[in-house]
TrEMBL record:
<dbReference type="GO" id="GO:0016987">
    <property type="term" value="F:sigma factor activity"/>
</dbReference>
<dbReference type="InterPro" id="IPR013325">
    <property type="entry name" value="RNA_pol_sigma_r2"/>
</dbReference>
<protein>
    <submittedName>
        <fullName>RNA polymerase ECF family sigma subunit</fullName>
    </submittedName>
</protein>
<dbReference type="InterPro" id="IPR013249">
    <property type="entry name" value="RNA_pol_sigma70_r4_t2"/>
</dbReference>
<dbReference type="InterPro" id="IPR039425">
    <property type="entry name" value="RNA_pol_sigma-70-like"/>
</dbReference>
<comment type="similarity">
    <text>Belongs to the sigma-70 factor family. ECF subfamily.</text>
</comment>
<dbReference type="InterPro" id="IPR013324">
    <property type="entry name" value="RNA_pol_sigma_r3/r4-like"/>
</dbReference>
<dbReference type="Pfam" id="PF04542">
    <property type="entry name" value="Sigma70_r2"/>
</dbReference>
<keyword id="KW-0804">Transcription</keyword>
<dbReference type="GO" id="GO:0003677">
    <property type="term" value="F:DNA binding"/>
</dbReference>
<dbReference type="InterPro" id="IPR007627">
    <property type="entry name" value="RNA_pol_sigma70_r2"/>
</dbReference>
<dbReference type="GO" id="GO:0006352">
    <property type="term" value="P:DNA-templated transcription initiation"/>
</dbReference>
<feature type="domain" description="RNA polymerase sigma-70 region 2">
    <location>
        <begin position="22"/>
        <end position="92"/>
    </location>
</feature>
<feature type="domain" description="RNA polymerase sigma factor 70 region 4 type 2">
    <location>
        <begin position="120"/>
        <end position="170"/>
    </location>
</feature>
<dbReference type="InterPro" id="IPR036388">
    <property type="entry name" value="WH-like_DNA-bd_sf"/>
</dbReference>
<dbReference type="InterPro" id="IPR014284">
    <property type="entry name" value="RNA_pol_sigma-70_dom"/>
</dbReference>
<dbReference type="Pfam" id="PF08281">
    <property type="entry name" value="Sigma70_r4_2"/>
</dbReference>
Length: 175
């Protein structure tokens, strides 16, 4: 079974079967991740459609261009930016986005804690949710301050302040 990078290279050559396989493999987790950031199913469906259309059109541009260099990281970067764009469109239309409120630790939070190690994972777990959300958007998702502000529905200055507070809290917890 080919991995996602191989499928993307095949998609870049116009292979529809590879695109369908990539979609079937990645759409479920992508939808879950998007729903953690937006509770509006219609908006999530729109972002999913925009994302996969962009993947079809731009697959040739993938060259380890994501934060983690993987195809799924590249796909998530596209989806996260499409979600930010959708939030911006909504803001212009004066309809506030519905944001999802996590009721339990997300699998990606647990995975991040496992990847970075016990000490850092504990420090991340001790952060206030709003600080952790900023770190997740900027560090894990690779979004800019502006994109993070749009995604979280807060001013850019608030994002910068929260990012600084998160760094200080992490430094203190790890020293």
């Amino acid at each position: 079974m080919p991995d996602e990078e191989t499928l993307l290279r095949r998609v870049a050559k116009g292979d529809r079967a590879a695109f369908e396989q990539l979609y079937r493999r990645t759409a479920p987790w992508l939808a879950v991740r998007l729903r953690r950031r937006c509770a509006d199913d219609q908006l999530v469906a729109e972002v999913m459609q925009d994302t996969y259309l962009a993947v079809w059109r731009a697959a040739g541009g993938f060259a380890g261009a994501s934060v983690d260099g993987s195809a799924v990281g590249w796909l998530w970067t596209i989806a996260a930016r499409r979600l930010v764009d959708a939030f911006r469109r909504r803001a212009r239309e004066s309809v506030p986005p519905l944001t999802a409120e996590p009721s339990s630790p997300a699998a990606e939070d647990e995975a991040l804690s496992d990847v970075v190690g016990d000490e850092v994972g504990v420090a991340l777990g001790m952060l206030a949710p709003e600080l952790r959300a900023v770190l997740q958007a900027m560090v894990v998702d690779g979004l800019t301050v502006r994109e993070t502000a749009t995604l979280l529905g807060v001013p850019e200055g608030t994002v910068k302040t929260r990012a600084r507070r998160a760094r200080l809290a992490m430094r203190e917890a790890l020293s």
